[in-house]
Every structure is written in structure tokens, then in C-alpha cells.
Design brief:
alpha+beta; 6-stranded antiparallel beta sheet; binds methionine sulfoxide
């Protein structure tokens, strides 16, 4: 089992290296998608400061359906194309939103959320899920965060 190191003061590239190596270790040899998504959500919440929600929505038919996460209870079903998550899934493109209140159609699951990063998880070219991060800080997520979570999405794509 993956052992967390001293993760309290990690930042920048060091944090992303831990995120990626931790994710690889957690899903290694484990075929159960729910277990893997649950552990990845926990890893993200442990490593990334200033989040109030971190987890997965899975593409099922024409909807996103809530998957394992850390945070307050959330909207269960989101139509593709709706909100930040549905937009990321429909477009197959990362959505990095500095101010969710300025995003047309943003779905407010937790009133504390101010900024959001949603990254599609693709397998064989199709979006199968999204990783959703919410922060109570405006403009919490950098372009480097977006790139790091796109790499994380590639790491977990075969394991969820
Ligand atoms: N804010 C998201 C909905 C999911 S929650 O943030 C967990 C959206 O607009 O798609």
C-alpha cells in the first residue's frame, strides 16, 4: 500500500511529482474502479491545499453521475454540456474557472466554492469521467495545476 510521506509543505513540481507517483502506486494492480477513484480523491485532498471539494463524475449515457469524492454532498446528475463539469465532458477540454459565479450555468453544489478546475479523463479518445476540484479561494488554480491534473487523468484513465 502506498504510504504518504511528509506532505504538509509540498508545493509546485514537488507536489505534482508526489501526486503522480502516489496515484500510480495507489492504482497499481487494482482493477476496481470505485476503490481507485476513492483513493485518488483522498490523495488529491491530502496533497492539494485550499480545496473544499475533490472527486469524480463519471460519464453514463448523456449524463455525468457523481462518483467518489471528498467534500460536502453534491449534485448527483449533471447533463453533458451543463455547468463546468458538463462543459468539460462535452468539449473534452479542461475548464479552469477563476470565478465560478461568472461562469454561465455554473452549478453551485457548495456555496463556499469560488473557483473550479475540471479535467476530462479520456480512454481511447472518449471522455469517461471528469476530475472536479473546487476551492473557496478565487483564482485558486494555475495553468500548471491544469497540466498536472491532465497528467493525473492520463494516469488514472485505465484504472477507473
Ligand atoms: N460546480 C460544478 C458542479 C459539481 S460540484 O462543484 C461538486 C459544475 O458547475 O459543474
Amino acid at each position: 500500500m502506498y504510504e504518504f510521506g511528509s506532505t504538509t509543505a509540498l508545493s509546485g513540481d514537488e507536489l505534482f511529482r508526489e501526486l503522480h507517483s502516489g496515484a500510480r502506486a495507489l492504482v497499481d494492480g487494482e482493477p476496481d474502479a470505485v476503490a481507485n477513484m476513492a483513493n485518488i480523491a483522498a490523495l488529491i485532498a491530502q496533497l492539494m491545499p485550499d480545496l473544499n471539494w475533490a472527486g469524480f463524475y463519471r460519464v453514463i449515457g448523456s449524463e455525468l453521475v457523481l462518483g467518489p469524492f471528498i467534500g460536502k454532498p453534491a449534485c448527483i446528475r449533471i447533463a453533458l454540456g451543463q455547468g463546468v463539469c458538463g462543459t468539460a465532458a462535452a468539449m473534452g477540454a479542461t475548464q479552469r474557472i477563476d470565478d465560478v459565479h461568472a461562469f454561465p450555468g455554473h452549478i453551485a453544489c457548495d456555496a463556499a466554492s469560488a473557483s473550479e478546475l475540471v479535467v476530462p479523463v479520456k480512454r481511447d479518445g472518449a471522455v469517461i469521467a471528469v476530475i472536479d476540484l473546487d476551492s473557496p479561494q478565487r483564482a485558486r488554480f494555475s495553468d500548471a495545476d491544469a497540466r498536472a491534473f491532465e497528467t493525473l487523468a492520463d494516469i488514472v484513465a485505465a484504472a477507473i
